[in-house]
Design a protein that fits this description.
With 410 residues, this protein is mainly alpha-helical. The chain is built from 17 helices and no strands. Helix 6 packs antiparallel against helix 7 and helix 13 packs across helix 15. It starts with a helix and ends in a 16-residue tail after the last helix.
Length: 410
């Protein structure tokens, strides 16, 4: 345990501040978490209209990421984060005043867009502040902090939803405001070209080149992006096909059991992220991303055989381990292969592709379930995740030059 905790020592002080800000921000993710329930239960929208609004909210992440990534690379990471976070906080606060009206819905959607736009700047700050030997530990710490904050926030969210629904909006705005204050006063601007910062090495600069040109000429980035889409389609079944399977197998307790599994997912992330990150820290990030696909394949593939609740818990722990590996190592991979001048845009690009996979996954498998039994979702999920891992391992020899000098060859 001492060795695990040692990995989180000696990180730049700003990384700890960013992680604390992420924890606080995540603890206030009330409105996004309860959006479907607010629309149907509190505001009385029929399921089809509520579903359309939620779909729009999901797709707003994509332009949000792209706009935020562009601004993070041009105006500055800190500037972009504070601007978009401030706009999101203002939109959530205003939505409380217009709660129940059409304007309130538009303000919620605006807040979701601005929150997404702040994300690439936040991630780019982690990349700028840490070198190759520290990035995995920094992103591991961030992932633990975010999920811990999200889990703690849910403890209060249910009570607020039942009794003081407007406080969900004020709570989201307040959490963003506190995180903004921390970063505004305790974290410097990290954009490499900003005054006072050391210039990035020539190999990390790509001024004048478009994001698309840099992306399409790099087979590593292309392969990782395609594998990421496959992973997202598979992972989306944790919130689509999995509850349907539980409802089919356990008609009276399916929803309750699904809640247990999602709690297991959150607890596993908090407890296992330091262990998994430490155990895989000597491997290349692309190797760990391939390993994530294997865990996804095994975890979701196991659901084909699940008939008792203990097996569902085992499956959840396995695919959550894949989630940990993917979440921590994807940002490390981007930092290793994207020029410093384009980190915000590349993060936005990968997040957009991942979001597209999450969005189309339920739709594709929904069409599939119109003709086939739900049991066949899981062999297909196994094959898709395994294909993503195979692509990454096929590209592994190309990643040799980008390996951190502190890591071991594979």
């Amino acid at each position: 345990m001492t060795g695990i905790l040692e990995r989180y020592r000696h990180l730049p002080a700003s990384v700890y501040i960013l992680t604390l800000a992420a924890l606080i921000n995540a603890s206030g993710s009330f409105v996004r978490t309860f959006l479907t329930m607010i629309l149907t239960d509190k505001l009385g929208f029929p399921p089809n209209e509520a579903g359309f609004i939620v779909m729009v909210a999901l797709f707003l992440h994509l332009p949000g990421y792209l706009a935020g990534g562009k601004m993070a690379d041009s105006a500055g990471r800190k500037t972009a984060f504070l601007l978009f976070s401030g706009l999101a906080a203002a939109a959530y606060a205003a939505a409380a005043f217009f709660y129940g009206s059409e304007k309130g819905i538009w303000l919620i959607l605006a807040a979701i867009f601005f929150t997404s736009a702040a994300t690439p700047a936040n991630t780019a700050m982690y990349m700028d502040l840490t070198g190759p030997g520290k990035r995995e530990a920094a992103f591991s710490l961030h992932y633990v902090g975010y999920n811990l904050g999200f889990s703690l926030g849910l403890l209060a969210a249910g009570f607020l939803y039942q009794h003081y629904v407007l406080l969900l909006f004020w709570g989201s705005a307040l959490a963003m405001l506190i995180s903004m204050i921390l970063i505004a006063f305790l974290v410097r601007e990290t954009l490499p070209s900003a005054p006072g910062n050391a210039a990035a090495p020539p190999q990390e600069e790509a001024a004048g080149n478009s994001t698309a040109a840099l992306f399409f000429k790099n087979p590593l980035l292309l392969g990782c992006a395609f594998a990421g889409i496959l992973y997202s389609i598979v992972y989306s079944q944790s919130s689509f096909s999995l509850p349907l399977l539980l409802k089919e197998l356990f008609p009276l307790q399916g929803a309750v059991y699904y809640g247990y599994l999602m709690s297991t997912n959150g607890i596993t992330v908090i407890l296992l992220t330091p262990l998994v990150s430490t155990a895989t820290s000597r491997f290349k990030s692309i190797f760990n991303l391939g390993l994530a696909g294997i865990f996804f394949a095994c975890g979701f593939g196991l659901l084909y055989f699940c008939r008792s609740l203990p097996l569902f818990f085992i499956s959840t722990i396995i695919w959550t381990t894949g989630e940990i590996l993917n979440a921590v190592n994807l940002n490390v991979f981007i930092a290793e292969h994207a020029p410093a001048s384009h980190r915000g845009r590349f993060h936005a690009l990968f997040r957009s592709m991942s979001g597209a996979g999450h969005s189309i996954g339920p739709w594709l498998f929904g069409l599939f379930l119109m003709h086939f039994a739900i049991a066949w979702v899981w062999p297909i999920s196994f094959l898709l995740a395994f294909l993503g891992a195979a692509i990454l391992y096929a590209l592994l020899p190309l990643a040799g030059s980008a390996r951190s000098p502190e890591k071991t060859h594979l």
